[in-house]
Amino acid sequence: MQKPSRKPVNPCFSSGPCAKRPGWSLEALSGAFLGRSHRASAPKARLKEVIDLHKSLLGIPADYRVGIVPASDTGAVEMALWSMLGARGVDVLAWESFSEEWLKDITNQLKLPDVRTFTAPYGGIPDLSQADPARDIVFVWNGTTSGVRVPDADWISDKREGLTICDATSAVFAYDLPWKKLDVVTWSWQKVLGGEAAHGMIALSPRAVKRLETYVPPRPLPKIFRMTSKGKISEGIFTGDTINTPSMLAVEDCVDALRWVERLGGLRATIARSAANLAAVEQWVAQSGWADFLAEKADIRSATSVCLKVTDSWFVSQSIEKQSALINELCKLVEKDGAGYDIKSYRDAPPGLRIWCGATVEAEDIEALLPWLDWAYESVKNTDQSKAA
């Protein structure tokens, strides 16, 4: 097969940090409040703008509190787990790396006495109907490392007694989330917005706030996890008064990304862009003789972190170690020609490919990348078979 001549204009397909918005340049950061205290009025107003734009663009209910918190989505999730869990039994749904990490933290670090676990291997998803509305529920909306998402929120009861704690970092701005069914939602700026890392977002329903104000966990809480003071919610967190010092450069970048979403037409536009990118991969997979989606069913297929497996019998017959080595070679070939960066599957996932298809990626760049995958796979296969002969 001849090497393709067309390359993506932007060959960045990492699943985090993700591609910057189309047309982005350092000039977008020229208004950053550098060398200023984040507690001064103008910088604090910029932080509040991040919160307000998120609320308006995502359609977050007016009675939900939204705040900027430390340590990216990871910090936001841990903040929720350590501050809120233990008041009642908890059901944990896990089917990929990050949801497995939350499960480990709940069982090995928090050591909660009443935990039920529902797991599935990469490509699958647990039976969501097993989650008990009388218990707290912890889950990811979109499994970034498996390319598997929840198909809907029908399984979450409107009359639930427990809290739903949802890691939605690779779902926010790619799906229309059912906020009223979600009590705690976490995400970061580095995914669909293409922003910079290190800062997280947390949204709390009134029910989550009530939990924080009425439940005192039987464990010490580090400062960066504390959302209450003297038994009341710390309102400043949700108006731009951050717990720790944020990067005002990253804040400016986030505002730029949010204003870009606004110019596009809002949430519907970013959802449509991710869907178009996924559609380009679906069309390619349909005619591919060697690749398929890792997700077992179309209704649980991610529109952002698109994970692929190799189905060619020659590849499947190799050991896992050999498969991983072959994928490494394929990715090196694509990267060497500047046609696609960071497309290897996550380290804990089965050997394969992962292509970020969030809204900052252009469909034309996805379409330009895919023939390079065909060329690279054929090259790697032919080279290995020649060596064996």
Strand order of the largest sheet: 1-9-8-7-4-2-3
Q: Give the number of DSSP strands.
A: 14
Instruction: Please name the CATH architecture of the largest domain.
Output: 3-Layer(aba) Sandwich
Radius of gyration from CA coordinates? 22 Å
- Count of DSSP helices? 9
Taken as a percent bin, the fraction of beta residues is 5-15%
Q: What is the quaternary state of this protein? A: single chain
Helix content: 25-40%
Look at the helices and sheets and give the structural class: alpha/beta
Distance between the termini: 20 Å
Description:
By secondary structure, this protein is an alpha/beta fold. It folds into 2 domains: 26-263, Type I PLP-dependent aspartate aminotransferase-like (Major domain) (Aspartate Aminotransferase, domain 2, 3-Layer(aba) Sandwich); 266-384, Alpha-Beta Complex (Aspartate Aminotransferase, domain 1), CATH 3.90.1150.10. The protein is built from 9 helices and 14 strands. It has helices at residues 41-58, 72-84, 97-109, 206-214, 248-264, 267-287, 313-316, 320-336, 363-388; strands at 65-70, 90-94, 115-119, 136-140, 142-143, 148-149, 164-167, 184-188, 199-204, 228-229, 232-233, 291-293, 305-310, 352-356. The strands form 4 sheets. It has a 7-stranded mixed β-sheet with strand order 1-9-8-7-4-2-3, with helices on both faces. Strands 12-13-14 form a 3-stranded antiparallel β-sheet. A two-stranded antiparallel ribbon has the order 5-6. The longest helix has 26 residues, at 363-388. The radius of gyration is 22 Å and the shape is globular. It starts with 40 loop residues before the first helix and ends with a helix. The mean pLDDT is 98.
